[in-house]
Amino acid sequence: MKSNHIMNLIFIIFVYLVTLSSSKSIVKTLPGFDGDLPFTLETGYIGLGDDNEVQFFYYFVESSRDPVNDPFLLYLTGGPGTSGLYPFLYQIGPLSINVYASSWTNITLETNPYSWAKTANVLFLDLPAGVGFSYATTYEASISSDSVLAVHSYEFLKKWLLEHPWFLNNPLYVTGISYMGILVPLVTLEVYEGNERGDEPHLNIKGSAIVSPLTDKFSDFNSRFEFAHRVALISDEIYESTKEACSGNYVYNDPSNTLCANALQRVDECTSGINMANILDPLCDVVNPDPTCREAAEKYLKYWANNKKVQKALYVREGTVEMFEKTNETIHYDLKKNDTIVYSYDIFSSIIYHQQLLTKNCQVLILSGDHDMNFPYVGTEKWIRSLNLPVASPWNPWLVNDQVAGYRVTYTKDRYSLLYATVKGAGHSIPLYKPEETWVILDQWLASTSNSLSDS
């Protein structure tokens, strides 16, 4: 096993030595899509480290409206450990899988009418190394953490924009979903502080947007209990007795507190059969999911992205990745998961970074699906309130096609603003459940913030 690992490393090093530290290519066609792509797609690698030992693979889509002037979004996928190919094909990218015309091994792609690339330039990324098509040329370079990932994201962004200087003046937003709620505020802060230090290039940072964020690894998981009661998954009696027995701590409870343990067991009996991503959705068969099941993405992407014709079309360096996986489970985080041999979950809460951004000319968008039990709106609203921001526009419904799409509230303090919105009927991957609504509020928010003056 060790000898095989060494041989693989030797081969990767060889491939690395005969390629540049970065490379980029325009993708004209993709297997599964009929004809030329009706948008500009660039893929490539950016090397980081003294010897470019970390090679990050990216997928960049130009805005179909006005790429010269439209906002520029760096989009960080959740997990950590989930490939940027997942949101590219399944959530906010220019293409989506037509599940009704596809089989596992013969996928049909179609255009996504609610792609974020309709209104912005979007840069998707496989990170850290070992995720998607990104790789490392040394074992040491394959080891990462939350804090390292934040620095790498900033360094990647600077290097990418140096190679694409015509996008330096576009309004820049750091965006992401789920676990990236831990990292997006820190990456955003890195950009602001880099500008203040005089780092080159100077980035036209405007703010950040986060979908269904994990922000605090206690309060967000802890809020699942309150959410379960609000949506009638547990009774008033179970709620009150558990609340009393556990003293408000439903995650890191004292093992010797048998009353709390017994109460939480009752809660688990009521909620264990619920789809956490959207409590209204049925649970999917993990081994053999129905093709229309949202969890089927894992299987579709596995077959499609491991197709040699697909990898050739995407300009993936041959031999650098043995097997594409939608998510690297070694890296992927779950409640109470300890550090692994390749990844350290060293940031417990990102609230402190949100607090530091309050002094910046920063515009923030936070979206929560009101049926998401992974990181419920309950916990999100709690940490937003802890920022003690003045309300500029009170809680009100927002509309799409003359129908209530959710509710929103705006906070402002000096040059900082935060728009928090719920999306009615949406689960964790909000654009997957409510694509039009998500695109509408993003488009409106970008239009209202992208012309603000940046910090010098």
From TrEMBL:
<dbReference type="GO" id="GO:0016747">
    <property type="term" value="F:acyltransferase activity, transferring groups other than amino-acyl groups"/>
</dbReference>
<dbReference type="InterPro" id="IPR001563">
    <property type="entry name" value="Peptidase_S10"/>
</dbReference>
<comment type="similarity">
    <text>Belongs to the peptidase S10 family.</text>
</comment>
<dbReference type="GO" id="GO:0006508">
    <property type="term" value="P:proteolysis"/>
</dbReference>
<keyword id="KW-0645">Protease</keyword>
<dbReference type="GO" id="GO:0019748">
    <property type="term" value="P:secondary metabolic process"/>
</dbReference>
<dbReference type="InterPro" id="IPR033124">
    <property type="entry name" value="Ser_caboxypep_his_AS"/>
</dbReference>
<protein>
    <submittedName>
        <fullName>Peptidase S10, serine carboxypeptidase, Alpha/Beta hydrolase fold protein</fullName>
    </submittedName>
</protein>
<keyword id="KW-0325">Glycoprotein</keyword>
<dbReference type="InterPro" id="IPR029058">
    <property type="entry name" value="AB_hydrolase_fold"/>
</dbReference>
<keyword id="KW-0378">Hydrolase</keyword>
<feature type="signal peptide">
    <location>
        <begin position="1"/>
        <end position="23"/>
    </location>
</feature>
<keyword id="KW-0121">Carboxypeptidase</keyword>
<dbReference type="Pfam" id="PF00450">
    <property type="entry name" value="Peptidase_S10"/>
</dbReference>
<keyword id="KW-0732">Signal</keyword>
<dbReference type="GO" id="GO:0004185">
    <property type="term" value="F:serine-type carboxypeptidase activity"/>
</dbReference>
